[in-house]
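> Could you send the Peptidase inhibitor family I36 protein prediction when you get a chance?

Sure thing. Input:
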Amino acid sequence: MLKPFAIAGVIAGVLAVAPPASAAPQSGAGVYPPGNCQPGTFCVWPHWDHPNGVPTATPSLVTTTEWSGNITGFNYYNYTNRNAEISWSFTTQGMTLTGTDCAPPGDGFFYVPMTVTKVSWRTHVC
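Output:
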């Protein structure tokens, strides 16, 4: 009869010493660190200005909500706890390509200049 109480006590003890869940992923979880992108935001930078691999330029987009429009995006960082879907277009050799990328929390990339047209939140895993 005491065994269920002992197990419950152990679980309560583990939960009491466990660190709290964060609203944003740990810094540096992706390919590049978040630089000047603040926790809880999704950031897009218009060009490569990353001394020592860390973005310091002013982002062309900082959002905490879904967004649509047209901005130049060279790379991005998802510093939220949600999966983001990024819609983009890219013109090369007279041909325009369009697509979407899923950015899990702590992820960031592009590395070529694109036009970002939409950021939305996904309910499923990337």
